[in-house]
């Protein structure tokens, strides 16, 4: 029996959520090599809970990690062949509580943020735990208690995962498992627009790139009272979802002059531009379509240096800032919007697979098979979703 260890002695469990001896977990070997195996169920420590994973969404960053390793960091290095389980956009049911945890109860449905910073460094103290200075330091002599689930610790392509209580958000009874996995994506968009950006109602927002973050940025911007909200995209099926999520205007980048059209719609340029593509074309468009004193949020990870008119930013007092995830509990606020049904995030969820079908799910996400946007792996604990592919 694995739970006779000292860590488990202090953990609260319940007969209502019986724990198996071991859990199924996907483990990364060499790049792109995932194997379904059995692992010991981790014990939650102080300020932590054990979550039974009910559903996990696939993110472009997962595909990146599987191929290149980065931005995952396990024991100070690349995540390959370290018995590491990826997956970070998950939700589930609390199955056990660490010592002293009274903020949640066993049986609570929760969705999670990824980052629990160290809580000690300058950025964590500011609430910018995504930018924690002790990122990845959670092992051996440098254990600062930092966790970024699925990046620096084991994640959600498994039956159970440990989470810090600060990273968990209760899920309303009428929200499906699949929808709840999308909260952290909406929270990332929210953090970019409000906490980092300072958006107030009535300001104009342009979102370039209708991927999951871009589409939910449209939804969040609209819910926050931005006006107008403009989406720039090339794929009509995604542009259409953008309209349903609240875009007042959609610009088809294939056959319109994007900058000229934004100027026409906003007069002096957009107050906010969220660039979710981050290539040379979109960066230059973003710079030239931003109003004086406006802000550009870079929500993409360009692999190559990008050439653009830096002087234009200076002359026009334009702010440029990057965003690498959620922060300052923006995910909690995104859940408030979704619980109130201010927008229907389910529109970006296109496919559901079982845990055993993870490789197929990854393939759908990677190759955008059947116009896949958000692909979700569901453990089948909740009600069946009609989008399940058989
Ligand atoms: Zn993600
Ligand atoms: Zn920190």
UniProtKB/TrEMBL annotation:
GO terms for molecular function: L-threonine 3-dehydrogenase activity; zinc ion binding. Signal peptide: none annotated. Its cofactor is Zn(2+). The keyword Amino-acid biosynthesis does not apply. It is an enzyme of class 1 (oxidoreductase). Keywords: Metal-binding, Oxidoreductase, Zinc. It comes from Octadecabacter temperatus. PROSITE patterns: ADH_ZINC. Belongs to the zinc-containing alcohol dehydrogenase family. It holds the Pfam family ADH_zinc_N. InterPro entries: ADH-like_C, ADH-like_N, ADH_Zn_CS, ER, GroES-like_sf, NAD(P)-bd_dom_sf, Zn_alcohol_dh. The gene is tdh. Its EC number is 1.1.1.103. SUPFAM superfamilies: GroES-like (SSF50129), NAD(P)-binding Rossmann-fold domains (SSF51735). This is L-threonine 3-dehydrogenase.
